[in-house]
Amino acid sequence: MYKSPFLNEISDFMMARHYSKRTIKTYITWIRAYINFNDKKHPSTLAGPDVKSFLTHLAVNRNVSASTQAIALNSLAYLYNKFLDQPFEDMGDFKRARRQAKLPVVLTQEEMMLLLKQVPPQYKLVIGMLYGSGLRRMELVRLRVNDVDRSMKQVRVWNGKGFKHRFTTLAVELLPAIEQQIKRVELLLNDDLQNPNYAGVWMPNALERKYNGANKTLAWQYLFPSVRLSVDPESNLIRRHHIDESMINKVIKQAGKSAGITKTISCHTLRHSFATHLLQNGVDIRTVQSQLGHADVKTTEIYTHVLKQGADGVKSPLSGVLQAM
């Protein structure tokens, strides 16, 4: 809940349309900043030039990144186009934050082997699926048991980035570990069902109404549940959430350090590596685009540039000189 009734209305509006809590929080943060920047005037009394001034302020005075400025713009576009139904007129040009052109960090397959050897046992499946299926961190922690199709060896991703659904590959070598993980989930569920206060796993409102009682079935439990029950801050009901996503990056960074990998790595590094290694193995770029869930193939093409920078790219002229000596 927010102190402002207006912001609460936006939150309720977005929740009814199944936006994630993270997205709602992000949008409201920027809408609040926009309102404060304009001396707390109601957004309905403001227009395109005011949005332009705010976005320019972010770039010039706050020195935000291009991606941060884009999120702020998306938040305000949603406010005006969807919530207020008051599309602002052309803002004209505003000061764009400088976008740094940089290639993604990618691990070699040898580095991936070294990394996996250093991952604690309880996180090996998590890290294996991040890399082996090219999942984003939040896509992974939000997986339900029924999102893993063991017979077809694929993972279903619902409401990924941009609310897109997709299927991505599942390494057959992970199937035994997945079977064990599902058994652990079932044991936790059986314990939870003995608790009279347990309200079942969280499900989007529309699904909870459509599949009455499904939130207490194995199929809808998180594949990677938290080790303890907690109180849902919105409903005040006792539920079992998914694992803390922030821990995964910590595990990866520590494993990388232990493996002697000097690159700066994160969960997204594994996704970058997944895409690059698929291309190295001859998978066509349209298939890689589909696996990653990119709306535009141009986004996927960044990985072809990565290949050109490495051993598969330009051969150093020094090699020819040294080999001829």
Structure description:
The protein is mainly alpha-helical and 325 residues long. The protein has two domains: 79 residues, Tyrosine recombinase, N-terminal domain (DNA polymerase, domain 1, Orthogonal Bundle), CATH 1.10.150.130; 210 residues, Orthogonal Bundle (hpI Integrase, Chain A). It is 51% helix and 4% strand. The chain contains 15 helices and five strands. The strands form two sheets. The protein has a three-stranded antiparallel beta sheet with strand order 1-2-3. It has a two-stranded antiparallel ribbon with strand order 4-5. α3 packs antiparallel against α4, α6 packs across α11 and α11 packs antiparallel against α12. It is flat, with a radius of gyration of 23 Å.
Instruction: Please state the average pLDDT score.
Output: 89
Find the count of extended strands (DSSP E, 2+ residues).
Answer: 5
- What string gives the helices and strands in order? HHHHHHHEEEHHEEHHHHHH
Q: Per DSSP, what share of the residues sits in E-state strands of 2 or more residues?
A: under 5%
| Cα-atom radius of gyration | 23 Å
Structural class: mainly alpha
* Biggest β-sheet strands, sense, barrel: 3 strands, antiparallel
Secondary-structure arrangement, i.e. CATH architecture of the largest domain? Orthogonal Bundle
Can you describe this structure in just a few lines?
With 325 residues, the chain is mainly α.
